[in-house]
């Protein structure tokens, strides 16, 4: 019996798909919060200029910088989610998916180091599960090459 149409099974497909969906949902929500914060920073800057309060203007500038960083992180989360879902069953892209997840995990670890809280620690759960799924696919890809 020939196995001409054999497609190797991706053992991390389920984990990557679920984590990808969570990445997109939470990244989208974070993107909205970042846009609202940026809008709030613009309003604060305008109020500070109107009332001639230097401290309000400085706080608005700091809030704008933080908002832009949140927008970058959110956009990258959405990108990681799309990559995870699109390539969940593609073993040839397993190393790329793992690399993207590791980069995002490092970004989140830096966030936890700067702002330690239980919520920040809870935010590491999804990337760790995604990393486990990606690693399973990498191992399956290496096994299928042999």
Your description of this structure?
The protein has 146 residues and is an all-alpha fold. It has one domain. Helices cover 82% and strands 0% of the residues. It contains 5 helices and no strands. Helix 1 packs antiparallel against helix 5 and helix 3 runs antiparallel to helix 5. The longest helix is centred in the N-terminal third of the chain and has 39 residues. The chain is elongated and about 70 Å long. The relative contact order is 0.18. The model has no long low-confidence stretch (mean pLDDT 86).
Summarize this, please?
The protein has 146 residues and is mainly alpha-helical. The chain is built from 5 helices and no strands.
Radius of gyration: 20 Å
- Principal-axis shape equals elongated
What's the quaternary structure here?
single chain
The parts where pLDDT drops under 50 for at least 5 residues are none
Order of helices and strands: HHHHH
Q: Helix proportion of residues, in percent?
A: over 70%
The end-to-end span amounts to 21 Å
Number of helices: 5
The share of residues in extended strands comes to under 5%
Number of strands: 0
- Biggest sheet features: none
For the record, the count of structural domains works out to 1
Classification by helices and strands: mainly alpha
């Amino acid at each position: 019996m020939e196995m001409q149409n054999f497609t190797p099974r991706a053992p991390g497909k389920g984990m990557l798909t679920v984590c990808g969906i969570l990445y997109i949902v939470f990244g989208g929500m974070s993107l909205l919060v970042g846009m609202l914060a940026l809008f709030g920073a613009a309003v604060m800057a305008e109020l500070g200029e109107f009332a001639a309060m230097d401290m309000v203007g400085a706080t608005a500038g700091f809030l704008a910088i933080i908002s832009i960083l949140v927008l970058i992180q959110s956009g990258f989360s959405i990108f990681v989610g799309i990559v995870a879902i699109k390539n969940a069953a593609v073993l040839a892209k397993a190393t790329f998916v793992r690399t993207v997840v590791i980069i995002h995990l490092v970004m989140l670890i830096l966030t936890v180091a700067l702002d330690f809280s239980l919520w920040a620690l809870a935010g590491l759960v999804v990337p760790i599960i995604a990393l486990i799924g990606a690693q399973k696919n990498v191992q399956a890809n290496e096994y299928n090459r042999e």
